[in-house]
Each structure stands twice: as structure tokens, then as C-alpha cells.
């Protein structure tokens, strides 16, 4: 379908000027555009197909950005981008192209960048209070909350506080499609599902649509809107839609058909003019208008790679077995052998590899919804009760539950295993999804043990070792994407340290963390070609630092650590501190990611910008070994070298023999 109306929309004002009769055509164009563009680049397709009419209605009723619109989560913001002047999707989620989530640098219409769910109502609460305190009480704040976000505790903390002050213009739109990533779980979801599926509601809605349709398009919609309040009051006798919110003292409007533009605009105007917090319950369909998405029972094309826009089939085969796939198979084997193992995830059963476990042992896998804090403390309780929980989440979402990992699991020496998927650089999803803080955060938990497998065989080994620990938390972290080639050790030393190659001389000791071991080997081979001996080890368990690593460091002239987490407070820092505590004065150079919010881009781009390439590392190490300081005004971003820091404080120290 050729887009005729969409190119004329450069901002919300254009949308508001558009005659209502053209909105249906515009919605069709937007869906066709999304399918065509996202099928080329990959991205969150299903959620955006489901919010087309809702987004159009929001921007016609409210005055963005004066009336801030906050999306929770941000993956449902593609349509919002289209109608706020961003229609070049050719490089979606690529460096230099549009971000996959709201981004302030792109537009003043984007308010909240973080795509971690369940935070929008707290943002809205704070913004609306600021408007009230600063004499801007006429400004509205809108939070669009996916129904999955209602499973997160922050949502209910915010609702409790929002209901405490009814003098603000705050509108909460519940985008209820019955799903977060997969079907939404829990009591709130069951209540909303009752509203969505109750026969009395569906029957009366269908009959009213048919009856008023006989008056003709425009007249029928007008009559329907005119009496809709009475219809809602009648339906409420059967559906009890106010039950969930009655004790919160927040006005409830709905349920409203999230694909009926007229009904949506009418209801949103009521909410806009109410003068106090309002909840608008909009029922939508994820994947709306695209049959392959609707037919996908698993996640309705929540997130896709490059696909055939006609069939929805992937256009290229997977590059190899994924880290997630290796874990998915191994955890089933372990659960078969040990009935104490229980899987826990936070609304991401398939993405983190627990679907096979759930199919084999449905009573031993718990999906708690988007509630990582609850997942962790519940896991501590399971461990106390004699089970061994395996909490499988994305590394970035472990940040949300740090206090629970520290105080509920760590303090109580609970035998809980955390499996952190998408650790390190994740690429196109941007700063809120990079799993780069876990090593620095989690190593501060007393008694914790952290493993970073370099390949599939090590993932299986280390996962088995992790679930055997019942008196302390354990962590197994791995990257996004395909597993690299298997790297066979030439020797396994005590403490389980693998030596991947011995140097011809004891010049440099490389300590690689997980997938960075392969990079360390490439650098070592370059150094050997220049007559510099380089040994490469994989500690396997990077925290606590194995004693063998310290012993090897003492016999080498330089230690170089390479990790795909932030270099500040990372594994390299831990090794340097342990060396100093052991009175070993070997120089340590720590390589890793900068303590910055890294924008979306390919993994290769981001690692290169951080200086984590074979060429760059080899050049810098040669300079260090030869006692030549690399002529930079300051250490390159992402590279923290103890030698460089010493040189800045005392230039003579930079040239001392290593």
C-alpha cells in the first residue's frame, strides 16, 4: 500500500487537523508501513501494530509535548515516532538511525528513555506534582501502560501515591492486550481477562456496534458516543470493571475498544477534562492487522528479526546455536536429575530459555510477571524451603533487583542461581538493555560466585557447578546471540582455571572474561609474532578471583584483563585489588566498557569504540611492554590502565620497566 496520508503528518498538529473520515485510512497506512519497514530491520512489531488507533487518538486529544506522553514500556512507541516527525525507519535500531525506544535526543515528544517496565506511573506522578507546584496545573500527563506493566510492584506503589492527591490532571491509559511479552500472568491479568472475555460484555458490545451501524458511519458513531456512558453503566453491572480500582479513589473509564477511534477520542476527552487522576481501560489486540502476528500464539511477533513481510517467516537462518538455546537444553537435563531445581523468570519464559523446562516440568517453573524484585526474594524463600531456584532474567534486569540479591539472597547465604542472559553489549536495543553493569554490581555481594562461560561446553559445565552450590548465590552470565567456536584449553589448573595458550616468555598474562577470551587469544597471537610472550587464561569463575590467577600474575611482567562489563569496579579492578592485597606488584591494565550510557549500534561497533579490538589492544600492550607511553591526552574511553593513571600522576613512573 502506497502511503498518501502518512507523509503529510509531520507532527501532532497535522494529525489534529486531519478529518476524522481519513483516520481509518491513516491507520491502515501505518500498519502497512510498520510491516514493510520492520520486516527489513527487525524490531518490536506486534506491540506497535496493536497501538495504532490508540496512539492516533492520544495525539489528537492531548497536546504533546506540552502534555507529556510516557510509554511503558517504550517498545510500543513506533507509531508515536511516526506521528511526531520521524518517518525514516530505514536504519531503525542501527547506529545513526532511530532508536527502538523513546530517546530524548530524537524529539522533545520523547519523555522517558528507559524501557524497563512498570516505572511510568512514578514518572507521571512526579511530573504532575511538579506541574502543580510550579503553577502549570492546566498541563496533563499521560502514562500509557501495557497491561504487563501492572504486574510490577512500582506500578502499585505509584497508584497508591497518585490516589493520595486528586488535584492533578493525570491520565493512566491501560493498553490491555492480555500480554506483556507472552500472555500476562497473575491476579490482575485474570481480572482484566474477565473484563475482556466476559460473554455479557462481548455480546452487548457487538450488538450495540451492529445496531448503531444501521444509522450510517458518521451518524452511527455519533449516536453510539452519545449514549456510551449509559451503556458502560449497564455493562458494569455484569463486568464489575470498577472493582479493581474502587478502593484507590481513581476515576475509571472503560473498557473501551482500543481500535475504535471515535470511542477512544471520546473517552480520552472525558479523561482529559476530568480534572483529577483517571484510568482509561483500552482493550487492544497485539499484532492487529497482520495475520502472521495474530497466528503466532507464542508472542504475536513481539520482537522479530528480518522477516518476509508476506509470510512472516525469517529471511535468513540462524547463525548457529544461541547461548540461550544451550542453557535451555542443559537446564532440562539438570532438572531431570535434581527434583529440587525450580525455574523462575519475570515475564520472559521463552526469551530466557525456560520454555522447554516449563513444558517438561510445568509445576517447577514460575513466571512472576514483570516483577524481578519479587522473583529474587521468592527464590530466597524457595531455597530456605529446600529447593534450588534458578532465576533466569536478562542481565540488565538484574539491576532492578540488586537490593534483593544483596539482602535477601546474599545476606541469608541462600542457594540461588542467577542465569543472566544478554550480558555485556546487546547492540540494537540501546543503553537501557546493555547488560554491562552486572559484574561491577554483583561482585560486591559477599560470598557470591560469578561464572562467565567462554563457549557452550563451559556454559554446561559452569551451570552444573552453580546449581551444586547451596550455601551462597551463584551467577552464570552469557551474551546475546550465537555461541562462538569451542576453545579447548591446553591445561586446567587448580581452582578450575583454564590455560588457553602458554606464552613463549612470561611477558603478558591475559585474563579473558567469558566471550572476551577469544579476543585475548587473537591479541596474544599478534604479540607472539612481535616476539612478546603472551599467556591467555580463562578463570571460568571470575569472582572470587582464583588463587591460580594471582600466582600466574606474579610470574608475568604485565597483566591485561578484558571484560564486556564496565571497567569501573569490574573484574579487572577486583584482580588488581587482590594482587595488591597479596603484595604482588605486577602492573595491571584493565580493559572493558566505559562507565557511560552506550547508544544503540552493532556489537562490533561498540566494542571498537571502546578500544576492544585485536589491533588496538596489541598496539597498546606492545607500547607498555617496551616502556613507551601511548601518546593520548587521556586514556581512551573504555580503557582504564593503571599505568596510564600512574603516568598522569607521576610521568616518570610511565617509563619504568614492566
Automatic annotation (TrEMBL):
Basic and acidic residues: bias regions: 635-651
UniProt-listed Enzyme Commission number(s): 2.2.1.7
Keyword Transferase annotated: yes
Residue span of region Disordered: 635-658
Record's keyword annotation contains Manganese: no
Class of this enzyme: transferase
Catalysis performed (reactions): D-glyceraldehyde 3-phosphate + pyruvate + H(+) = 1-deoxy-D-xylulose 5-phosphate + CO2
Biological process per Gene Ontology, one example term: terpenoid biosynthetic process
Similarity annotation: Belongs to the transketolase family. DXPS subfamily.
Protein known as: 1-deoxy-D-xylulose-5-phosphate synthase
Organism, scientific name: Pseudoclavibacter endophyticus
Amino acid at each position: 500500500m502506497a502511503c498518501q496520508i502518512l507523509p503529510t503528518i509531520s507532527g501532532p498538529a497535522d494529525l489534529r487537523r486531519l478529518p476524522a473520515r481519513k483516520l481509518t485510512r491513516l491507520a491502515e497506512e501505518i500498519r502497512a508501513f510498520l510491516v514493510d519497514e520492520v520486516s527489513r530491520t527487525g524490531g518490536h512489531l506486534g506491540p506497535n501494530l496493536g497501538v495504532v488507533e490508540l496512539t492516533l487518538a492520544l495525539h489528537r486529544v492531548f497536546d504533546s509535548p506540552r502534555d507529556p506522553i510516557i510509554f511503558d514500556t517504550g517498545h510500543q512507541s513506533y507509531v508515536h515516532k511516526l506521528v511526531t516527525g520521524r518517518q525514516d525507519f530505514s536504519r531503525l535500531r542501527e547506529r545513526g538511525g532511530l532508536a527502538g525506544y523513546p530517546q530524548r535526543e530524537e524529539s522533545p515528544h520523547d519523555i522517558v528513555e528507559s524501557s524497563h517496565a512498570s516505572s511510568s506511573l512514578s514518572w507521571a506522578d512526579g511530573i504532575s506534582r511538579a506541574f502543580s507546584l510550579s503553577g502549570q496545573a492546566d498541563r496533563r500527563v499521560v502514562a500509557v501502560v501495557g497491561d504487563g506493566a501492572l504486574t510490577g510492584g512500582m506500578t502499585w506503589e505509584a497508584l497508591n501515591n497518585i490516589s493520595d492527591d486528586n488535584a492533578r490532571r493525570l491520565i493512566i491509559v491501560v493498553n490491555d492486550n492480555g500480554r506483556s511479552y507472552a500472555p500476562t500472568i497473575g491476579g490482575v491479568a485474570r481480572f482484566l481477562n474477565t473484563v475482556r472475555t466476559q460473554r455479557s460484555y462481548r455480546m452487548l458490545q457487538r450488538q450495540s456496534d451492529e445496531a448503531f451501524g444501521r444509522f450510517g458511519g458518521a451518524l452511527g458513531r455519533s449516536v453510539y458516543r452519545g449514549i456510551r456512558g449509559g451503556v458502560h453503566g449497564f455493562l458494569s453491572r455484569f463486568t464489575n470493571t470498577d472493582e479493581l480500582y474502587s478502593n484507590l479513589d481513581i476515576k475509571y473509564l472503560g473498557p473501551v475498544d482500543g481500535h475504535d477511534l471515535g470511542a477512544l477520542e471520546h473517552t480520552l476527552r472525558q479523561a482529559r477534562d476530568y480534572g483529577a487522576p483517571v484510568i482509561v481501560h483500552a482493550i487492544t489486540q497485539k499484532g492487529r492487522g497482520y495475520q502472521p502476528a495474530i497466528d503466532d500464539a507464542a508472542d504475536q511477533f513481539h520482537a522479530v528479526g528480518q522477516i518476509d513481510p508476506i509470510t512472516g517467516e525469517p529471511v535468513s537462518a540462524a547463525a548457529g546455536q544461541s547461548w540461550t538455546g544451550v542453557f535451555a537444553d542443559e537446564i532440562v537435563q539438570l532438572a531431570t536429575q535434581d527434583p529440587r531445581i525450580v525455574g523462575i523468570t519475570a515475564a520472559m519464559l521463552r526469551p530466557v530459555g525456560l520454555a522447554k523446562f516449563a513444558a517438561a516440568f510445568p509445576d517447577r517453573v514460575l513466571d512472576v510477571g514483570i516483577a524481578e524484585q519479587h522473583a529474587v526474594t521468592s527464590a530466597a524463600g524457595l531455597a530456605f524451603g529446600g529447593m534450588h531456584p534458578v532465576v533466569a532474567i536478562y542481565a540488565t534486569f538484574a539491576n532492578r533487583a540488586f537490593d534483593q540479591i544483596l539482602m535477601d539472597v546474599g545476606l541469608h547465604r541462600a542457594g540461588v542461581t542467577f542465569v543472566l542472559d544478554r550480558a555485556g553489549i546487546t547492540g540494537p536495543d540501546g543503553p537501557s538493555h546493555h547488560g554491562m553493569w552486572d559484574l561491577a554490581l554483583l561482585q560486591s555481594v559477599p560470598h557470591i560466585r560469578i561464572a562467565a562461560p567462554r563457549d557452550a561446553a563451559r556454559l554446561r559445565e559452569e551451570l552444573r557447578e552453580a546449581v551444586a552450590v547451596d550455601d551462597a548465590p551463584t551467577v552464570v552470565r552469557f551474551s546475546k546471540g550465537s555461541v562462538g567456536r569451542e576453545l579447548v584449553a591446553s591445561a586446567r589448573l587448580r581452582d578450575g582455571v583454564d590455560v588457553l595458550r602458554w606464552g613463549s616468555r612470561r611477558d603478558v598474562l591475559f585474563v579473558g572474561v567469558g566471550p572476551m577470551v577469544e579476543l585475548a587469544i587473537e591479541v596474544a597471537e599478534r604479540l607472539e609474532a612481535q616476539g612478546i610472550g603472551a599467556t591467555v587464561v580463562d578463570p571460568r569463575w571470575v569472582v572470587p578471583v582464583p588463587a591460580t590467577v594471582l600466582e600466574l600474575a606474579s610470574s608475568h611482567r604485565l597483566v591485561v584483563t578484558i571484560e564486556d562489563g564496565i571497567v569501573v569496579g569490574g573484574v579487572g579492578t577486583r584482580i588488581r585489588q587482590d594482587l595488591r592485597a597479596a603484595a604482588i606488584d605486577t602492573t595491571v591494565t584493565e580493559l572493558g566498557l566505559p562507565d557511560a550510557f552506550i547508544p544503540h549500534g552493532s556489537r562490533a561497533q561498540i566494542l571498537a569504540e571502546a578500544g576492544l579490538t585485536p589491533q588496538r589492544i596489541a598496539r597498546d600492550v606492545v607500547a607498555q611492554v617496551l616502556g613507551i607511553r601511548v601518546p593520548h591526552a587521556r586514556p581512551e574511553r573504555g580503557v582504564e590502565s593503571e599505568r596510564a593513571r600512574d603516568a598522569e600522576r607521576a610521568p616518570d613512573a610511565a617509563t619504568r620497566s614492566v
